[in-house]
Amino acid sequence: MSYAVVAHYRCAPADEASVRDALLKMREHTLAEPANEGYEVHAVADEPGGFLLYERYADRAGFEAHKAAGHFEELIVETVWPLLTDRTVTFAETL
């Protein structure tokens, strides 16, 4: 059963380039993870500093392994999250 993550990130427009760069680097690393089935990064139309991420993993354990990876700590926890003004995350399982 696939496990999906949909995240909506918002940052100040001045931080948009830094967040975009980190998210695109994160996509490269994540797509190489064994349990990853997809990682898409979108800029939200008409919302400067808005990003939408759609991630799929083989299962929840695969997502937990993703969160434990060094690149998650470096690029998301240390780089992206401090720049965000808002973050919402939805977790879902395939029916």
Widest sheet: strand order? 2-3-1-4
Helix content percent band: 25-40%
Largest sheet composition: 4 strands, antiparallel
What structural class do the secondary elements suggest?
alpha+beta
Count the helices. How many? 3
Please give the number of β-strands: 4
What is the helix/strand order? EHEEHHE
Instruction: Give Rg in angstroms.
Output: 13 Å
Key words describing this protein structure:
single chain, 95 residues, alpha+beta, 4-stranded antiparallel beta sheet, 38% helix
Describe, in plain words, how this protein is organized in 3D.
This protein has 95 residues and is an alpha+beta fold. The chain is built from three helices and four strands, in the order E-H-E-E-H-H-E. The protein has helices at 16-31, 60-68, 70-80, and strands at residues 3-11, 36-43, 50-57, 84-93. It has a four-stranded antiparallel sheet with strand order 2-3-1-4. Helix 1 (16-31) runs antiparallel to helix 3 (70-80). The longest helix has 16 residues, at 16-31. The radius of gyration is 13 Å and the shape is globular. It starts with a strand and ends with a strand. 18% of the residues are buried. The mean pLDDT is 97.
What's the quick description here?
38% of the residues lie in helices and 37% in strands. The chain has 95 residues and is α+β, with helices and mostly antiparallel strands. It has a 4-stranded antiparallel β-sheet with strand order 2-3-1-4.
Please give the structural blueprint.
Elements: E1 3-11, H1 16-31, E2 36-43, E3 50-57, H2 60-68, H3 70-80, E4 84-93
Antiparallel strand pairs: 1-3, 1-4, 2-3
